[in-house]
Write a structure and sequence with these properties.
The chain has 97 residues and is of the alpha+beta class. It has one domain. Helices cover 23% and strands 27% of the residues. It has a five-stranded antiparallel β-sheet, covered by helices on one side. It is globular and about 35 Å long.
């Protein structure tokens, strides 16, 4: 896992976990998403269903990385969590009930 997973914070008011993707690292945002969800769920990323089972990770990366100055956000379910990702690189994860 990269350092991205180590920066996951929790907001008890909204009951969400937050991480910030660093666009300057050169790795795609879907890597940060998988690492963040793994951190939240206590799973190893390699033990989780592939992210491409719920969306096209390359299309997600292309959409968000090309619109970093816009307010683009996408919400989807993955590994029992609700994941919201923004073009700013913000990743928010809420565990399922």
């Amino acid at each position: 896992m990269s350092d991205d997973a180590g920066r996951v914070g929790y907001d008890p008011t909204t009951e969400t976990y937050h991480n910030q993707h660093n666009w300057d690292t050169g790795h795609p945002i879907y890597i940060s998403i998988a690492q963040t969800v793994a951190s939240v769920t206590g799973s190893e990323p390699t033990a989780m269903d592939p992210l491409y089972s719920v969306l096209d990770p390359d299309a997600l990366d292309a959409l968000l990385s090309s619109r970093r100055d816009a307010d683009v956000r996408l919400t989807f379910s993955y590994e029992g969590c609700t994941v919201t990702v923004k073009s700013s690189g913000e990743i928010a994860v809420r565990r399922g009930e």
